[in-house]
């Protein structure tokens, strides 16, 4: 049940305009808090108004405004694409069309089609996923690999941390294999330790690296983004990085 709480005397203040969600029988407290947050989130409302599938779309848009990630005609791979906000932004920015698709997205969740985006429903960590992505790009190199992937958390912090680190490493490894010289890599990271190793590896292969915490990323979330630009060119072998 949703109601707009009115202040005393019937006058609305900004605080009073907040939509409050009454707890309901059978709904967990955490679900009620989530629902209330969604209903009061300006990015959720803006995403809906602009026909974007996720509030996350604003994160990549903000990062693009600052770091100039997209240009027309470039090829983009979107890892962890569902429900599709980043792919929508990428398709528009690159001028990707159904006739000449420039954006490939992958997610193990099913997604509704997006014009100009080739979508694969698959776990990116499957051994054959990289080859399938390369095939979907017509064997061509990518100019931008972006990853917003995150596993659902288990609640067991060490396990969650290891799983997330693994996901980021696989994404970075893939980027080093498929990027064209001067390409870029953007990945969601979570504050906590092993990010330093990833950063060191990216610094070796890219001309510049940056941290980003877009305004549209919730302040109370540990998520942040790593942006690496100016790929120096394909490495000889993945072993180089393991030895470092
Ligand atoms: C935060 S959402 C991405 C939102 C997306 N950027 C957007 O704008 O709509 C993270 C996504 O990563 C996906 N994901 C996580 N691990 C994955 C994996 N191993 N393979 C494929 N997708 C994965 C999840 O299914 C989820 O849809």
Automatic annotation (TrEMBL):
Put simply, this protein is called Ribosomal RNA large subunit methyltransferase E
Named from the GO MF annotations, one term is: methyltransferase activity
EC number(s) stated in the UniProt entry for this protein: 2.1.1.166
* PANTHER family tied to this protein: RIBOSOMAL RNA METHYLTRANSFERASE, RRNA METHYLTRANSFERASE 2, MITOCHONDRIAL
Q: Tell me the protein family, please.
A: Belongs to the class I-like SAM-binding methyltransferase superfamily. RNA methyltransferase RlmE family.
Enzymatic class: transferase
Task: Give all residue intervals belonging to the Ribosomal RNA methyltransferase FtsJ domain.
Answer: 53-231
Chain sites annotated for binding S-adenosyl-L-methionine: 84, 86, 107, 123, 148
Q: Principal localization?
A: cytoplasm
Q: Which HAMAP family match?
A: RNA_methyltr_E
Show the active-site residues.
Answer: 188 (proton acceptor)
The record lists the lineage as: Bacteria, Pseudomonadati, Pseudomonadota, Alphaproteobacteria, Hyphomicrobiales
This chain's function reads: Specifically methylates the uridine in position 2552 of 23S rRNA at the 2'-O position of the ribose in the fully assembled 50S ribosomal subunit.
| SUPFAM superfamilies linked | S-adenosyl-L-methionine-dependent methyltransferases
Localization annotation: Cytoplasm
Q: What does it catalyze?
A: uridine(2552) in 23S rRNA + S-adenosyl-L-methionine = 2'-O-methyluridine(2552) in 23S rRNA + S-adenosyl-L-homocysteine + H(+)
This protein's source sits in the domain of life called Bacteria
Keywords, ordered alphabetically: Cytoplasm, Methyltransferase, rRNA processing, S-adenosyl-L-methionine, Transferase
**A matching Pfam family:** FtsJ
Alphabetical GO biological process terms: methylation
């Amino acid at each position: 049940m949703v109601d707009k709480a009115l202040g005393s005397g019937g006058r609305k203040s900004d605080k009073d305009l907040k939509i409050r969600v009454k707890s309901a029988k059978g709904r967990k407290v955490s679900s009620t808090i989530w629902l209330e947050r969604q209903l009061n989130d300006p990015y959720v409302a803006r995403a809906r108004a602009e026909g974007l599938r996720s509030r996350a779309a604003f994160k990549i848009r903000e990062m693009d405004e600052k770091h100039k990630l997209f240009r027309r005609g470039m090829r983009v791979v979107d890892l962890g694409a569902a429900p599709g906000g980043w792919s929508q932004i990428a398709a528009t920015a690159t001028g990707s069309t159904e006739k000449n698709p420039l954006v490939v997205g992958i997610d193990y969740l099913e997604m509704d089609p997006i014009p100009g985006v080739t979508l694969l429903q698959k776990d990116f960590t499957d051994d054959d996923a990289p080859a399938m992505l390369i095939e979907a790009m017509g064997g061509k190199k990518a100019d931008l690999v972006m990853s917003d992937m995150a596993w659902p958390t288990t609640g067991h912090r060490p396990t969650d941390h290891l799983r997330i680190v693994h996901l980021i490493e696989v994404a970075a490894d893939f980027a080093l294999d498929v990027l064209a010289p001067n390409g870029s890599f953007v990945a969601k990271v979570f504050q906590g330790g092993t990010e330093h190793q990833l950063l060191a590896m990216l610094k070796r292969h890219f001309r510049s690296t940056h941290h980003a915490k877009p305004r549209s990323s919730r302040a109370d979330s540990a998520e942040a983004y790593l942006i690496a630009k100016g790929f120096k060119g394909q490495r000889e072998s993945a072993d180089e990085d393991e030895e470092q």
